[in-house]
Each structure stands twice: as structure tokens, then as C-alpha cells.
Amino acid sequence: MSGLSAPSGQPLIIDDAEAGVFRVNRAAYASEEVFEREQRALYDHCWLLLGHESEISRPGDFKTRTIALRPIILCRGDDGRVRAFINSCPHRGAELCRETEGNRSIFHCMYHSWTFRNTGEVHTVRAEEGYTGGFRREDFHLKQVPRLESYREFVFICFDPDAPDLVTYLGNAARYLDYLADQGGDGMEIVEGTQLYAARANWKLQMENVIDFYHTVPLHTSYFRFLESTGADISSGVGGAGYDLGNGHSAVHFKAGWGRPVARWEPRWGEAEKHRLEALRADIEARVGPQRAEMICDWDRNILVFPNLTVADVVALVVRVVNPIAPGMMEITQWCLAPKGEPEEARSRRLHAFNTFLGPGGFATPDDIEVFEGSQRAFGAHRELAWSDFSRGYHGEATRPETEVRSDYEGQTRAFYREWAARMGAIVSHRVDGALPREAAAE
Ligand SMILES: [Fe+2]
Question: What domains appear along the chain, each with residue ranges and CATH number?
Fold first, then answer.
């Protein structure tokens, strides 16, 4: 057998269609070798969300972020073009821009005082006459990330110059970004402010979690109690359907019935809000047609864009990028997306819902992180207890978005891990019997 295995020599995935069994080897969360391979096989080739055009609307606006362990400046140049630069002085490596955001025509390096235009050209080389012979200014322009493309104002980058274009990469997931982008008649914007937090756990635990509707009710009890106390109608629960969108992307559709401020009115919001939301719905319908309007207004959804982007279009509209830092460490950056020109009251309700549920100090995120970190500690025992199970609904999975399955089935998670395994060159066993560790097989 060739390909990447667990350090124990076991396969990384069991995908047994006959038995309806799908398992992930816990070494996938703990092994340095797997982590390194992920960086090379996934993060060097996949399209990764860097930001949203609304964050850098004026020439000179910039944000600095770390993506795939690279420090990046996302910047709109004085020429109006959006670019992504490696945030390192081409001269000697110092961090060029040390602020998280701002507006600049010129970036100034603190180390030797070289300066660079926001379009990338080196602007001044201090005491340039000291260089002779082979010194060429053009060797010292800022280094751009090889690929940058926007889809509906979502700015993605890719470190692979030969990768397929973004729309091809997104495939069916593009339609799900449309569902977000079409919510505002005057466009969408990232609400000012970023939530940045970390968890001592592998990044894939967060990716699984956002499309895992088997955990929502048992783990997030306190949130549902809180919702009931506010008078929200939670009788519809979180039922719905999970979908494999292809290319490792997936979505879960559901009707949560609590607090989504797009177009579903709740009596506690008052009559005036009812009229506003009816008008908003009519506007959305006029722009995108009745079918898409139904998807946008009547359904909530969580979206996973492979490998590390999730969007929760439920209590608010939360865009979340999960950054692997080490096998047992992730950083999460998240923003709230909202229609431009949203009335103040609706905006504050949206932000309240965002912070209450998905914020790092909200009802859901601390619960989830507690589970991630406990799991990660246990993954130190991956040689003794090797497998995590994702077999629910194996024989009932939806392969097309029109096919209904239960959202607490795990076809969407299997889709993620199948893409992961294919890109990683990971060993997949298609028979559960031969793959199980000896003590489990003996039972
Ligand atoms: Fe959760």
C-alpha cells in the first residue's frame, strides 16, 4: 500500500459502503506528519477566503491577516485594484505592516526604512547609492500572492499559480454564496470589527462541528433554554437536510425558527418590522425570483466551503475562517455579514444574535470549544483508541441538493473527509474488517 497512513500503520479513513461504516483515524487530528501534508496538499492548492471587498472599499484601505501560516496584506491600491501581498519586507523579512487595518498609500518598513506603494512597487530605498552592480529595484517589489479572485465580493486567494479558477473550484458552493450576497438590495457588507480567538484543538474539529446537527440539541442546552426565556418559538427544532455539494463543499439546510433577521418575522419584533421584512422579501423576490427567494428567506443554512471556510446563515450571518496553526491549535477569525443600509434596530438585533450564539463568549462557541479541546487531549491516545465515527445515515445520503436527508445524518461530513483523503493521498480502507485495530476487531 502506498499513500499516507497513521503513524500506527493503519489507514486514515475507513469508508465501507457495504457495511455503511465511515471512520476517521484520530491520528488525522494529532499527527505532525498529517498536519504538514495538509499544508502542502490542501493549503498550497485550495482557494482560501481572505476577506470581503466591503472591508477595503476605499483606495488605500488594507487589512492584515494570516492565512495558511503566511502573513498577508489585503489592500485596495490607489489604482482601485484589490491585491494580496506577503506581509514581509522583500529586503530582509521584517513584518512590513504592523497594524491590523488602516488606510495607506505607502507602507514603511520599520527595519531599514524602505517604503512601498500600496500597488506593490518599491518606492524608496534608503541610501540607495550604496548599492552597486547587480542591484535592481524590481527585485524588491512586494510579493503578491499568486492568485486572487473575487466571487460576489468574497475575496479568495490561492497559492497555486496553476489552480483552476475560483468559480470552477466553488462549483455548487457558488450558489450558496449567492444566497448570502443577494440578501441586501444595495449589496452586503462586513460589519466593522473582527472576532479572533483560538482553540487548543485541530482545525478539522471546527469544520465537522458546523455541519454536525447531531450535536446541536444535546450540547447547546443552555442556549435553547435562553431562547425559550426570550419568548422565541423553538418548537421547530433544528431539523433539515444535509447536502454534499461536490469538491468537498457541503451545506445543511434547516428551519430553525428562532431569531434569523433576514425575512422571517417574530411577533416580539413589532408590526413595523413585519412590514419592513415583507417589503424586503418582495425586493429579494423581484431580484432573484421566487425559488431563490424562498431559499434565502425561508431556510437557514450552514455552509462549508472546503477546506476552511464556514458560513452560518442562521441567527445572524457569520463568516468564519478556521486557520490551522499546529496539529493541536487553530485560530478562528469571524465576521458578521449584513445588508448595506440595514436599519439600526435590525442591525443591533443581528449583532446581538451573533454575539449571543456564535460569538467567542456566546452560548454555542464555548460549549463547542470545550468539546474540541477535550477531544484533542484524548487524541494523544490515538494509538489506543484510534477511530472517530461518522457513519450516521450512510445509506441515506443526499448526493444532489434536491434530495432530502436528515440534517443529523453525516453525509456532509463524509463529503469533507473524502475530499480531504483524495487531496492528501491518504490511505482509505474500503473494508471495515481489515482496518480495525486488533482489540476492537476481537470483540
Ligand atoms: Fe455547536
Answer: 49-158 (2.102.10.10), 189-428 (3.90.380.10)
Confidence of residue 441 (pLDDT cuts 50, 70, 90): very low
Q: How far is the CA of 197 from the centre of ligand 1 (A)?
A: 16
pLDDT digits (tens, 9 = 90+) for 96-122: 999 999 999 999 999 999 999 999 999
Q: What residue type is assigned to position 57 of the chain?
A: S
pTM over 0.70: yes
Residues with CB under 5 A from ligand 1 (ion): 364, 368
- C-alpha 4 – ligand 1 centre gap (Å): 30
Q: What angle do CA 355, 361, 365 make, to 5 degrees?
A: 90
For residue 368, how far is its CA from the centre of ligand 1 (angstroms)?
A: 5
Longest dimension (CA), the chain: 78
- Tell me the three cell numbers of residue 124: 524608496
Cα–Cα distance for residue pair 24/21, rounded to 1 Å: 10
β-pair partners for 85: 73, 144
Q: What sign results for the dihedral spanned by CA atoms 229, 231, 235, 236? A: negative
Which DSSP string corresponds to 142-163?
Answer: PPBPSEEEEETTEEEEES-TTS
